[in-house]
C-alpha cells in the first residue's frame, strides 16, 4: 500500500471523528455570562416600615419598602454570579409575621422559604426580626 491511500484513509477517519464531535470538548460557559435574577418577598401582617435588602448586582445591594398586608415585592436584576443572589427581609418593631421569600435564577426557583419572624426577641441580636433568603449579604454581617 502506498502513502496516498493511507493519507486518504487517515484524513477520512479524522474528519469522521471530528464531525461526530468525539474529539471536541463542549464549550465552556463564558466567565461573564449574565443571569436574570428575580427576588420575590411578602409579609403577611398589617405593618409598615418593613424593608427588603437584596443584591442588585454581584457587589452592590439595594433596599425597598415592604409594606401592606400581603403585598408582594418583586425586583429583577442581572448578575454574573447567581450564587451571590440573596436578600434580607427586616420587620419593624413591634411586628410578628409570616415572611415569604423566593429567588429565581433564569426563571428557575433556586430558593423558596416561608418562616414566622418575631421582632420581640433578643434586642441585642441584629438578626432579630430579620429573615435571610439565599446568600448572605453585607447587611446581615
Automatic annotation (TrEMBL):
<keyword id="KW-0732">Signal</keyword>
<feature type="signal peptide">
    <location>
        <begin position="1"/>
        <end position="30"/>
    </location>
</feature>
<protein>
    <submittedName>
        <fullName>Uncharacterized protein</fullName>
    </submittedName>
</protein>
Amino acid at each position: 500500500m502506498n502513502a496516498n491511500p493511507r493519507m486518504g484513509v487517515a484524513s477520512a477517519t479524522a474528519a469522521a471523528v471530528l464531525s461526530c464531535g468525539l474529539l471536541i470538548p463542549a464549550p465552556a460557559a463564558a466567565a461573564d455570562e449574565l443571569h436574570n435574577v428575580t427576588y420575590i418577598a411578602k409579609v403577611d401582617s398589617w405593618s409598615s416600615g418593613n424593608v427588603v435588602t437584596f443584591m442588585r448586582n454581584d457587589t452592590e445591594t439595594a433596599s425597598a419598602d415592604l409594606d401592606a398586608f400581603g403585598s408582594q415585592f418583586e425586583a429583577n436584576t442581572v448578575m454574573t454570579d447567581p450564587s451571590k443572589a440573596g436578600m434580607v427581609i427586616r420587620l419593624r418593631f413591634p411586628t410578628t409575621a409570616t415572611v415569604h421569600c423566593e429567588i429565581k435564577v433564569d426563571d428557575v426557583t433556586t430558593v423558596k422559604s416561608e418562616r414566622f419572624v418575631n421582632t420581640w426577641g433578643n434586642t441585642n441580636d441584629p438578626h432579630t426580626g430579620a429573615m435571610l433568603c439565599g446568600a448572605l449579604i453585607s447587611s446581615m454581617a
